[in-house]
Design brief:
With 174 residues, this protein is α+β, with helices and mostly antiparallel strands. Helices cover 15% and strands 36% of the residues. This is Ferredoxin-thioredoxin reductase, variable chain, chloroplastic.
Length: 174
């Protein structure tokens, strides 16, 4: 579909908008005027005419698709394989559990601290499993979001969030 843009005076633009609305009877068009601007909208296009002191400006608005094509994308009618559902359920049950890391890890992106080392004696809480997002299975490198609270000298308690693999932590008593 090709769309052209024409530059015209504000009076001509308003009369052309009403003529376009009358000429295309099969496409419902709506014309509204508010605060020195006229808007012509249809199911196929949306044009906004703005009047200024020197000239009229014609802007083309894009429409957003509300439904995806049924031949592509995620089909909600088909069910996922049972082993994926069991794995998802098993991983979602871990959310809220207290965990410890198995070996020391360095965390670099902590505000106002150069680096923090997580040791096996520190306890964190799993906040989220990110392997299932917006109805689709994804394969993140570090699927578990774990929150730690550490005491830093001269700053008090600092909350930091770390993404970990399942092999990097062990679950302790809930």
């Amino acid at each position: 579909m090709t769309t052209g843009v024409a530059v015209m005076s504000s009076a001509t633009a308003a009369s052309t908008a009403t003529a376009t609305a009358a000429a295309t009877a099969r496409i419902p068009l709506f014309l509204s005027r508010n605060n020195s601007s006229a808007t012509v909208c249809s199911t196929l296009r949306c044009r906004t005419i703005t009047r200024t002191r020197t000239r009229a400006r014609l802007a083309i608005c894009c429409e957003v698709a509300l439904k995806s094509d049924s031949s592509t994308g995620f089909d909600s009618s088909s069910s996922s394989p049972p082993e994926e559902d069991e794995e998802l359920k098993k991983n979602l049950e871990k959310v809220g559990c207290k965990v410890k890391v198995k070996s020391p890890l360095k965390v670099y992106h902590v505000p106002k601290l150069p680096e923090v080392e997580l040791t096996p004696d520190m306890v964190g809480v799993i906040k989220q499993y990110v392997g299932f997002w917006k109805g689709k299975y994804i394969s993140p490198n570090y699927p578990f979001k774990v929150e730690y609270r550490i005491d830093v000298p001269d700053r008090g308690s600092v909350k930091l969030v770390v993404h970990l693999k399942e092999e990097e932590f062990e679950i302790i008593a809930e």
